[in-house]
Design brief:
Blueprint lengths: L4 H13 L5 H24 L7 E8 L4 H13 L3 E12 L5 E11 L1 H29 L6 H35 L3 H11 L2 H7 L16 H12 L23
Helix pairs in contact: 1-2, 2-5, 2-6, 3-4, 3-5, 5-6, 5-8
Length: 254
């Protein structure tokens, strides 16, 4: 299955601009990249394009790390992929005779969306950990602050992505209006309803396993700090994350 080279190249160029030392220019570039991804996917669904989907494993470890638990729902909600969490037997047993398992986190999507979601997951995984270490060192905090800080980070990231998605949906609704001579309300409903139908149908062919969070310890200060940091994260590293050094969001250094 082929991915869309044209879209990925455009996203790469915008993400390269997102590393600019000019904070306004960088923020605009990062948001434009996110809007481009959303518009492309919505447009594919509206055109009833014949799409192919593939699975990719993001994590295969004894357990999910804390930052991973907060990040993977973001992929499902904003990056046009579905996520599946499986607990797979390893064939080994504990001293008490209990079967050992490992966690396998997989995503389902078009080849293009899988590449982008894989990049986002790995970039945010590094960024979450680095930002918390900076926050912990600066404020002389303990590990107890990690969970609420990650929660705040996730809320900040989702706040930013929600803005980009709404802008993309509005743009596509205006396009549909001009092409089909329907009202804005009808166009917006069509855009929102149609965008995920094909992926939903593909995903519904299998049985899903959902992870249920055990919650987080209460620390309003850490959560608030995480939220502000999350709004400043730019998805600014090149797509080929495995061959590049990590780059933090604007205003944050290692």
């Amino acid at each position: 299955m082929k991915h869309d080279e044209n879209l990925i190249e455009k996203v790469k160029k915008l993400m390269a601009l997102a590393t600019s030392p000019n904070e306004h220019e960088a923020s605009v570039a990062a948001q434009k990249a996110q809007e481009l991804i959303a518009k492309y996917n919505i447009d594919q669904q509206l055109l009833n394009s014949r799409l192919e989907y593939q699975w990719q494993v993001l994590v295969e470890e004894p357990y999910l790390r804390l930052h991973q638990k907060f990040i993977w729902p973001i992929l499902r909600e904003y990056f046009f992929v579905k996520t599946l969490l499986e607990y797979v037997p390893t064939g080994e047993y504990t001293a008490a005779g209990q079967r050992k398992t490992k966690v396998k986190l997989k995503i389902l999507g078009t080849p293009t969306n899988v590449i982008i979601a894989d990049y986002v997951f790995n970039y945010l995984a590094e960024t979450y950990q680095n930002l918390f270490l900076e926050h912990k060192r600066t404020n002389k905090l303990g590990e107890r602050a990690r969970q609420p800080f990650y929660h705040g980070l996730s809320e900040g990231v989702k706040y930013k992505l929600e803005e980009a998605r709404k802008a993309a949906e509005e743009s596509m609704a205006n396009k549909v209006m001009s092409e089909r001579s329907i009202s804005h309300t009808e166009a917006m409903a069509l855009v929102v309803i149609k965008k995920d139908l094909a992926l939903e149908a593909e995903f519904n062919k299998i049985k899903t396993t959902k992870y249920k969070s055990s919650g987080w310890c209460s620390d309003e200060g850490a959560t608030a700090a995480g939220f502000e940091a999350g709004k400043n994260i730019n998805l600014s590293r090149p797509i080929d994350h495995k061959n590049e050094a990590p780059v933090l969001g604007i205003g944050h250094k290692k």
